Fold Carbohydrate ABC transporter permease.
Amino acid sequence: MIVGSLQATPDPTISGAFPDPANLTGENYVAINERVNLFQGLANSGIFTGGVILGTVVFGVLAGYALAVLNWRGRGITFAMVLLVQVVPFQLLMIPLYVMIARDYGLSDSYLGMILPFFINSTAVLIFRQYFLQLPKELFDAARIDGAGEFRLLWTVALPLVRPALLTAVLLTFIGPWNEFLWPFLITKEAALQPLAVSLANFISNIAASTSNPFGAMMAGAVVLAGPAVALFIIFQRYFVSNDLGSGVKG
């Protein structure tokens, strides 16, 4: 993909997978940036993704801890509702969410209007719940005897032990929203902007056709989008792998 983004003339042969100094250029990135404000688009994606990750981690940890460690009336029903959310296709919720955010709350054309519908992630709640269930109950009982409250238990005892789950939730959450926001806002009342309210990947694939090298321009846009996700995975790789291996260990 990187080599293809730097090719002046597309080379579909096997040799095209290797860089050819005579066929290298940076014009594909310039062509994409001239048609799409990449800096603005990536900044919007970063703000949107950061807000979603913040909500996912905070509410995921709190809800997962409550469902796994605390005993309270209605815990089983609440957990069943979390599982039920998993089987509801998001497409069924798109129109009600749009009406609620844009009309009822008046948050169209704003970052908050984009972030709120994704602020709580039921998948993250399940991930944290399963990890908290693996922690020995005696750790929490000993801390309570020493006078620790539930929030101190969560911060000093539970969270350090579920770091792989925390980083895994951040990585999995980042991949989705990072590709969902561009310019202008997805939630907008302006009819002229609504046709452009698509993900960055879809928008780049559409406008790439207007360049002199559509293949190279599309690859350049893909590299810009994939770069942060790949870097994040490399940074968190050992935690992500340890989480995957730990799920297959009996006991």
Notes: The longest helix spans residues 38-68. The chain has 13 helices and no strands. Confidence is low (pLDDT under 50) at residues 182-188, 191-198, 244-251. The two ends are 42 Å apart (CA to CA).
